[in-house]
């Protein structure tokens, strides 16, 4: 057999049938469901008199809409409450396993899946959410789907797909002080652009990637979609197996050993073909952040805001100017030193225990700058509990951060956590689109350590000056 | 799903690249449990001013483009989230066809599932179609899916590519689930094989 990539192997292993035009019916191992993109799918099933083919391959959580403040009170926003209650009715009616709001296991679906051992290497994993790419860090093929496809997976446990092209992004070397997976990913998106991965699945490889812990790999794969890729993945290795071992829904005992033996066969073969290759040196990457309203508009923290006058393409020039106007920035200004109003540490990109530890190292013994609202939103109830066991909550609370309950929160502002017009936010989330965190809000994407640095200094700051 | 055969309609030009799904439908409007009713929030931030009144400069607020059924943009249309609310909002507004040099993958997929035809054409062709669109009522574009052509007001035909399976589904207004269930035996065979080869595969049960 010709040498195959990790993606090729997972794909080949899940093809049920290939139709004459090249579309494959692809088997889905895990379907993750949340309250926003599922109601219309359940309704479709109901209207057609269908059931879930495999509820025991499905898991539902509430995350997008949930308040991250006191959970013992009823949810105030009637539409959010309705969406959550609708999910609760649906999981009951269709027999779907569910972590309710008050469960310690509740959290952001892309944090919960790996944490519970529900997302495993070699699996196909889908969810009605573009950041499903996160689970690719396990060495699985994981991608976001629309609600029609959610219904399709519910009814058939398959999806109709044509194979993606293979792309490899290799990062060699050792990241410098203060440089995290988030900085690496922002640098990658800056290099290849928001459409750089369109039609491709990106495999992240190289010594800098192998050196990342699972949380870092999840950050990387999470933002593959921001590079336009269908999915991102990292070959499963000892780091992966150790992470999976003992998780609640992971295989146990001999089953685990059998699974690992299989997972070890998945790595890309020597000489496998990639349609596109990009290589970066970890040493070239500084703490990085975005200046505009597209994730590709990145700068090292030492950089200056680009000048549209230097852009030859007219449409791009106009777009850059629009971004500067929206972001309230001047061409040529140093990005460091720009004052922020809000700091958001959370989201499926950066809300794991490792992320909170990185932020706490910066926050420890310091105070949130006057006039800055700084929020910590753990990715799950379990992350929150673990952080409390480690005393991180005290570090944050002493410094003046808000210590909140798990959910998507201000990443997309579907719950009450929202920016007001003109507010500038240092955010560990994944999208800086206009209005993403609230109408008129201005988002700078950066790492948890950089976000904490912004919180304690009151402005965008090079974290290397603090730690 | 409504069939898509031919569409002769007013086209609106939105000459921007990277129009993301938050722009098409901001997250705060995703709290619905229905597919319909999102049209009035399509392009909310561009369409309405802060006081809630219409922005008179935005193309879809102007005559005759309020009745546009075809939308033409630049590259990477629909980038960002997987929300199917984006095509639902477009459809509810009245858009049946989107034309751009390139699309984000998930949005592209989602369009087909809702009877919206996404057509990919080179940028210079999109620019010419945008010129046609600027003439409004005087310049309707016609999209003939069976023949795979966009017919310009001067009669020039621009051909486009489309996946034959998706074309078939659109022309017939078929949804995928029924199609896939015709292969149910294959799915069962796959499951039996998996049961043997991946006996370690855990099930999810919560008490």
Automatic annotation (TrEMBL), chain A:
UniProt superkingdom: Bacteria
Region described as Disordered: spans on this chain: 291-312
Names of the cofactor(s): [4Fe-4S] cluster
GO BP term (any one): L-leucine biosynthetic process
UniProt entry tagged with the keyword Transmembrane helix: no
Co-factor binding details: Binds 1 [4Fe-4S] cluster per subunit.
UniProt similarity note: Belongs to the aconitase/IPM isomerase family. LeuC type 1 subfamily.
Purpose: Catalyzes the isomerization between 2-isopropylmalate and 3-isopropylmalate, via the formation of 2-isopropylmaleate.
Annotated protein name in UniProt: 3-isopropylmalate dehydratase large subunit
Automatic annotation (TrEMBL), chain B:
Superkingdom of the source species: Bacteria
Associated pathway: Amino-acid biosynthesis; L-leucine biosynthesis; L-leucine from 3-methyl-2-oxobutanoate: step 2/4
UniProt keyword Lyase present: yes
Annotated GO MF terms: 3-isopropylmalate dehydratase activity
Catalysed reactions, semicolon-separated: (2R,3S)-3-isopropylmalate = (2S)-2-isopropylmalate
InterPro entries: 3-IsopropMal_deHydase_ssu, Aconitase/3IPM_dehydase_swvl, AconitaseA/IPMdHydase_ssu_swvl, IPMI_Swivel, LeuD
GO biological process: L-leucine biosynthetic process
Sequence ranges assigned to domain Aconitase A/isopropylmalate dehydratase small subunit swivel in this UniProt record: 1-123
GO cellular component terms, A-Z: 3-isopropylmalate dehydratase complex
CDD domains noted in UniProt: IPMI_Swivel
Catalytic EC class: lyase
Gene3D superfamilies per record: Aconitase, domain 4
The entry's keywords: Amino-acid biosynthesis, Branched-chain amino acid biosynthesis, Leucine biosynthesis, Lyase
A Pfam family of this chain: Aconitase_C
Its EC number(s): 4.2.1.33
Function statement: Catalyzes the isomerization between 2-isopropylmalate and 3-isopropylmalate, via the formation of 2-isopropylmaleate.
Subunit structure of this chain's protein: Heterodimer of LeuC and LeuD.
PANTHER family, sorted: 3-ISOPROPYLMALATE DEHYDRATASE SMALL SUBUNIT (PTHR43345:SF5), 3-ISOPROPYLMALATE DEHYDRATASE SMALL SUBUNIT 2-RELATED-RELATED (PTHR43345)
Annotated family: Belongs to the LeuD family. LeuD type 1 subfamily.
Name of this protein: 3-isopropylmalate dehydratase small subunit
């Amino acid at each position: 057999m010709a040498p195959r990539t990790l993606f090729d192997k997972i794909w080949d292993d899940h093809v049920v049938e290939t139709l004459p035009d090249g579309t494959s019916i692809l088997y889905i191992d895990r379907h993750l469901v949340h309250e926003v993109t599922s109601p219309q799918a359940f309704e479709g099933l109901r209207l057609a008199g269908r059931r879930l083919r495999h509820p025991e391959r499905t898991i539902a959580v509430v995350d997008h809409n949930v308040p991250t403040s006191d959970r013992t009170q009823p949810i105030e926003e009637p539409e959010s409450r309705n969406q959550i209650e609708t999910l609760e009715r649906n999981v009951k009616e269709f027999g779907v396993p569910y972590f309710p709001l008050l469960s310690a296991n509740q959290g952001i679906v892309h944090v919960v899946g790996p944490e519970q051992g529900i997302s495993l290497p070699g699996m196909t994993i889908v969810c009605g959410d573009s950041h499903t790419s996160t689970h690719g860090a396990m060495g699985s093929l994981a991608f976001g789907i629309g609600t029609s496809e959610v219904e399709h997976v519910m009814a058939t446990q398959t999806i109709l797909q044509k194979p993606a092209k293979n792309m490899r992004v290799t990062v060699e070397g050792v990241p410098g002080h203060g440089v995290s997976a988030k900085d690496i990913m922002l640098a990658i998106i800056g290099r290849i652009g928001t459409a750089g991965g369109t039609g491709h699945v990106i495999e992240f490889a190289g010594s800098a990637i192998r050196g990342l812990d699972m949380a870092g790999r999840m950050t990387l794969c999470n933002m593959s979609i921001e590079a336009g890729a269908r999915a991102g993945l990292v070959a499963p290795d000892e780091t992966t197996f150790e992470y999976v071992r003992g998780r609640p829904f992971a295989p146990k005992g001999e089953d685990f050993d059998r699974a690992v033996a299989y997972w070890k066969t998945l790595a890309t073969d020597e000489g496998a073909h990639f349609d596109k290759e990009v290589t970066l040196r970890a040493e070239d990457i500084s703490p990085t952040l975005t200046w505009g309203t597209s994730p590709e508009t990145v700068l090292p923290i030492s950089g200056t805001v680009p000048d549209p006058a230097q852009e030859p393409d007219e449409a791009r020039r106009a777009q850059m100017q629009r971004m500067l106007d929206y972001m309230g920035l001047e061409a040529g200004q140093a990005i460091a030193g720009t004052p922020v109003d809000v700091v958001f540490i959370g989201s499926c990109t950066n809300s794991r225990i490792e992320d909170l530890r990185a932020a706490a190292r910066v926050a420890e013994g310091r105070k949130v700058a006057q006039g800055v609202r700084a929020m910590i939103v753990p990715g799950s109830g379990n992350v929150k509990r673990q952080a409390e066991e480690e005393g991180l909550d005290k570090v944050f609370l002493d410094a003046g951060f808000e210590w909140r309950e798990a959910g998507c929160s201000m990443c997309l502002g579907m719950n009450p956590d929202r920016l007001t017009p003109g507010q500038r936010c240092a955010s560990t989330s994944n999208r800086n689109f206009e209005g993403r965190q609230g109408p008129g809000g201005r988002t700078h994407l950066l790492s948890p350590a950089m976000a904490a640095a912004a919180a304690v200094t009151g402005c965008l700051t090079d974290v290397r000056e603090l730690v | 799903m409504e069939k898509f055969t031919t569409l002769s309609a007013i086209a609106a030009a939105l000459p921007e690249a990277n129009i993301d799904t938050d722009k098409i439908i901001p997250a705060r409007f995703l709290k619905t449990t229905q597919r319909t009713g999102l049209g009035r929030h399509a392009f909310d931030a561009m369409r309405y001013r802060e006081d809630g009144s219409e922005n008179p400069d935005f193309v879809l607020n102007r005559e005759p483009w309020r009745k546009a059924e075809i939308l033409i943009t630049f590259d990477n249309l629909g980038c960002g989230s997987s929300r199917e609310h984006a095509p639902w909002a477009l459809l509810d507004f009245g858009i049946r066809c989107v034309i751009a040099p390139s699309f984000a993958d998930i949005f592209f997929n989602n369009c087909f599932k809702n009877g919206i035809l996404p057509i990919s054409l080179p940028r210079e062709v999109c620019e010419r179609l945008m010129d046609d669109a600027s003439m409004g009522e005087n310049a309707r574009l016609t999209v003939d899916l069976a023949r795979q052509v966009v017919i310009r007001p001067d009669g020039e035909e621009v051909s486009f590519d489309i996946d034959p399976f998706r074309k078939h589904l659109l022309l017939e207004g078929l949804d995928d689930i029924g199609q896939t269930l015709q292969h149910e035996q294959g799915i069962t065979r796959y499951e039996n094989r998996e049961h043997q080869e991946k006996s370690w595969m855990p099930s999810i049960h919560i008490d």
